[in-house]
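go over both lines:
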Amino acid sequence: MTLINCTPHDIRISTDAGWVDVPRSGLIARLETSRVVVGYLYDIVLRRPTFGVTIDLPAFVPGVILIVSAIVANANPTRDDLAFPGDLIRDDKGQPVGCDGLSVIR
């Protein structure tokens, strides 16, 4: 099984056997997004995002798992080749050091 990281960040995954580092691939899967002003909180503009089509998501390839954001995975529920980082793991100073496995929709 091959992991391809389609996020803009290097990912460090905690496993039962230690850590697996998956560097960013340069491909970034995203959702087309627009925002509509829905109000104001004092002088702060409140916007509601609307998500459209997925952009730059590679086609399915047998034996390949694409690591994407949770929002991209949720927007593509029929794809069983998508995973996203599990729960964040922090060090004793509160700094992120990796994630607890991977999460899947299907």
